[in-house]
Amino acid sequence: MQRPERKLNRHRNIDYSLPGFYFTTICAVNMIEWFGKIIDDKIILNKHGQLANYLWLNIPRFYKNIELDEFMIMPNHIHGIIRITDACGTAYETAGTTAGTTVGTEQCSVPTVPHTVPHTVPHAGHTIHALGKNYGTISKIVKSFKNEFTNYIRKKCNNYEFQWQRSFYDEIIRDEAALNAIRGYIKNNPTNWRKDRNNLTKT
Question: Most buried of 57, 130, 131, 151, CB within 10 angstroms?
Fold first, then answer.
């Protein structure tokens, strides 16, 4: 599947705090490979990649009614599905769809990511803060994640060269077929790295 073109703003008239599944892609400026390398079709994370992995996994600790689905740290970008739930953790209406249309079942409502923390990464996520359920929750989560990562590597790694690309790609996942397709796309990203548009060294 093709990754959506970059947008500097979210979709107009869509409340990004509504329950549903959201596909996000966050990129480093100039597609520099800050997070690791693809070796034998697998991502080998360096210390920056391990930190990004740790901070991503900790997002639900600081935001109410947030679950993580499939995600992947790539050499120069991050793909992740974020789910906004209600307090009961059931299946929900997809953001932006008509009433009665739902995304997810009991089979796909469980996060697919193990909540583990690499031993090589210190506790760095303590300043990611819950901002409540209001307009633009997805944007606020991404902004907080990006800021926390940047602040940490500047203060602890003395790295002032790293920059995130402005804004992020997003897609509102509207049905279970799309959800499963995007999950597959994320899982297969390392295998498809040789032809990935973000791979500046591809031949």
Answer: 57
Element (H, E) at 179: helix 176-187
Output the CA torsion sign for 4, 7, 12, 14: positive
In tens, the pLDDT along 3-45 reads 444 444 445 555 556 789 999 999 999 999 999 999 999 999 9
**CA distance linking residue 175 with residue 181, whole number of Å:** 10
CA 116, CA 126: separation in Å to the nearest integer?
16
Which pTM value belongs to this model? 0.71
* 86: DSSP letter: -
Output the DSSP codes for 89-130: ---EEPTTS-TT-EE--TTTSS--S-----TTS----TT---
* Whole-angstrom distance, CA of residue 96 vs CA of residue 90: 18
Euclidean distance between CA atoms 80 and 146, whole angstroms: 13
Among the listed residues 58, 59, 73, 63, the one whose alpha carbon sits nearest the alpha carbon of residue 27: 73
